[in-house]
């Protein structure tokens, strides 16, 4: 991994920050809209089965527990910029208005807008969009199937995936894959292993290569960490 300024990445690039991998969706006004590259955990949209994001248990969890976890893993708490989410329901009702969060979920409209940049997940995951605000349908929220198709589920479904959305300051340093360096490191490890396999156990040169291999493997572990 290597460090780079977030603003230097193109839309669609994957980077690591606060222990999670994110996809850069867009950049405007010094802020980068980023979606988790994959599902980070399974959790209900709302434990009381209500599809209003403003009162949902998942909203509280993301802006408290998860945010603190990201900070504990090295993210700067000031890097997260509050942003507004439109809670217009799938059938066009605007009863829920908008919310302001540091971490939220992507809306169906933004999912469609950035569809070409969003990698599929291995299971289905929540959006922030309610199915409807009408009393008969206020327990269902929109979700995305592993195939990428929009669907919906009961808000209390605890087996649903969570892909957090956030706005990050564009001038922060983030980690990206250094493919050229990692390729050279892998080749050096393989070469060292091949040499060790060919050398006699009593050869001092073998001990030197074993010591070198240990150093290379430690460097590899740090790269992956």
As an assembly, this protein is single chain
The secondary-structure class comes to alpha+beta
Write down the Rg.
22 Å
Share of β-strand residues: 25-35%
Q: Please tell me the total number of domains.
A: 2
Question: Distance between termini?
Answer: 8 Å
Strand order in the sheet with the most strands? 2-3-4-13-8
What about the largest sheet?
5 strands, antiparallel
Order of helices and strands: EEEEEHEEEHEEEEEEHH
Which segments are poorly predicted (pLDDT under 50) over 5 or more consecutive residues?
none
Helix tally? 4
Instruction: Work out the number of β strands.
Output: 14
Arithmetic mean pLDDT: 91
Amount of helix: 25-40%
The global form is elongated
Structural summary, described in words:
The protein contains 4 helices and 14 strands. The protein has 225 residues and is of the alpha+beta class. The protein has a 5-stranded antiparallel β-sheet with strand order 2-3-4-13-8. A 3-stranded antiparallel β-sheet has the order 9-10-11, with no helix packed on it. A two-stranded antiparallel sheet has the order 1-14. The termini are close together. The protein has 2 domains: 2-175, no CATH class; 178-224.
């Amino acid at each position: 991994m290597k460090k780079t300024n977030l603003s230097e990445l193109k839309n669609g690039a994957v980077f690591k920050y606060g222990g999670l991998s994110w996809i850069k969706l867009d950049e405007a006004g010094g802020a980068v809209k980023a979606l988790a590259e994959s599902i980070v955990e399974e959790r209900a949209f709302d434990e009381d089965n209500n599809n209003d994001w403003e009162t949902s248990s998942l909203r509280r969890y993301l802006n408290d527990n998860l945010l603190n976890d990201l900070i504990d893993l090295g993210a700067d708490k000031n890097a997260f910029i509050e942003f507004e989410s439109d809670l217009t329901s799938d059938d066009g009702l605007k009863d829920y208005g908008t919310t302001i969060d540091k971490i939220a979920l992507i809306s169906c409209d933004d999912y469609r807008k950035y569809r070409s940049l969003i990698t599929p997940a291995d299971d289905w995951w929540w959006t922030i969009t309610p199915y409807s605000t009408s009393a008969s349908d206020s327990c269902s929220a929109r979700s995305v199937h592993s195939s990428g198709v929009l669907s919906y589920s009961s808000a209390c479904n605890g087996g649903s995936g969570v892909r957090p959305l956030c706005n990050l300051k564009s001038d922060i340093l983030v980690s990206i894959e250094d493919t050229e360096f990692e390729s050279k490191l892998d080749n050096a490890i393989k070469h060292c292993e091949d040499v060790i396999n060919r050398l006699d156990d009593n050869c001092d040169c073998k001990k030197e290569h074993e010591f070198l291999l240990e150093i290379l493997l430690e460097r590899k572990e740090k790269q992956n960490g």
